[in-house]
User: Fold this.
Amino acid sequence: MHPDYMAMRLLKQISGHREAAFWSLQLLAWSAYFAAQFVAALFYPEMLGPNQLQGYLVVLVIAATSGFALSSGLRYLFREVRERGIAVVIPVCFAAIYAAALVWRLFINAALSAFLDERVAAHGIGQFFAGALISTYVLLSWSALYFGIYFYASVQRERLATAHAEGLAREAQLKMLRYQLNPHFLFNTLNAISTLVLDHDNQRANLAVTRLSGFLRHSLDQDPMKRVTLREELNALGLYLGIEQLRFGARLEFSQDIAVSAESVLVPSLLLQPLVENALKYAVANREAGGRITIRATVMDGQLQLAVTDDGPGLPEGVIPVGGRGVGLANTRDRLAVLYAGRARLLGRNLTPGCCIEIHLPAETSA
Assistant:
């Protein structure tokens, strides 16, 4: 499954389950509060007699339930102010937390009076505010946890949204780069067909149109985001060379040396066509005697090494191959940069005679 699709699906799941996640965590937090208070009472039996434990359980239920309700109310207030500036958020939140703590303390003290004797439940104004400070600490901890989870989830949503946006931009860029090839190739091929027509070679012109139709159908059916095996890529290249063979005839010699281990390696679709087209332009089309083009592929140290060589005039001294020798090479370089993010290279060097364009990319397979 494509990572950008997975990121978007996860983003939707996070957004869709946000409410359920909050209420689940809310229930868990206040259940933990109840359990902690109950266990603490068991460790101090001198504070509660055996007959008072049942009453204290009721007090804890009321305390946890009222804390659950008050903190849920705080959440709705926090949602209204959390996107405002710190100068608003901090005083409003602290005031709301303290007010909720006072109300919560009223519920707790009322429960203590109702279900425990006066010795345990004794309360004056001093005890009330002392208890309110403890309640404030509990609600303050709850609020810190709420904002911590909220900001963490916001960062995650932003990260996933950014990844999805980058994925869409990456896909659009790849499609743009990919479809640059078709007009470029189409222009050259239509020129070749026009030449055949002017030479009254109607049979070969008709065959060229048929082969062009087959190649363009294959080209347009392939998703530029999809990779194919090198064997499939070579089969597609055969459709292209069938067109060029009609154009150049015996002037074009073509051979390939493909290692068996390289045939199943995944490569971007229509990767080789612009390299071969470039070699045809410089090594075959410009020379009356024509030329030879060879494709080699090997796998070494986890890398697929592709090479398209010709016996033409080679590269001018100091010329960068992807900048000075055709749109196709620059396009190929950009596609590799987008698809492999620095893990693939396009290199050019002169031979004696000729030129060699190499592509090194990770030897990944579908298995």
